[in-house]
Design brief:
With 202 residues, the chain is of the alpha/beta class. The chain is built from 5 helices and 12 strands. Helix 1 crosses helix 2. The longest helix has 18 residues. The chain is globular.
Amino acid sequence: MIISIDTFSEILGIAVLDENKSPIVYLNYKKPKPFSEILIQKIDEILKEYSINKKDITAVIVNKGPGAYTGLRIGITTAKVLSYAMNIPLYTYESLYAMAYKFKHFTGTILSAVYAGKGEVYIRKFLSKDNTIKPLTENLIIKKNKLDDYLKEVDLIVEKNLNLENSEKLNESLALTGALLSLKESFKEDPFLIEPVYLREN
C-alpha cells in the first residue's frame, strides 16, 4: 500500500494506492481547520475505515509545492515522520507538474498556473505528447498582471484560483495524480533533505 498526501492548497487530499498503483482511496477535504490539527487524524480514520494495516504501507508520497507554504511544511513534515517511523521510502512531486500530468492524454503545450497571493502567480510550461509530459520551463513566479504574456501560444491552461477564461480549473487535490506521476518518474528523495519548493520573483 502507498499513501499520498497533498496540502499545497485549501484542499487536503489523501490517497491510498495498492501494489499495482491502483487507487483504493482518494478523499478530499475542504480545509475545515489548520492541516496541522487534522492531517494525522484523517490518515488514521482512513486506515481504520478501509481496514488498512499500517504494516502494509510500503511508501509515502507528498506534494512539495509550490503552493501554500505553511500547508506544504505540514504535509512534508508528516510524510517525513511516516517515512522515518515506518522505515519506508518517501517520494515527492511538484504541484505544477502534477497539474499538467492530469492532461497527459492531451497533445500540445500546457501552462500550469496557481495564484500565489499578493498579486503573484506560480507558473510552469510543459509539452504533452504521446501520453508524456515534458517540462519546457522551470517553476516561475510572476506578477499576475504579466500573466497574459505567458498565455500566448499555449494550447491548454490548467489553473487554480485564477478564474481565467477558457481554462481547466483544478477543484480537487493532487494526491492521486501526483502519486501516479511520482511513481512513474521514480521521484524518490531522502526524507532528511526534502524542503518545500519556495519561489521568489527575480
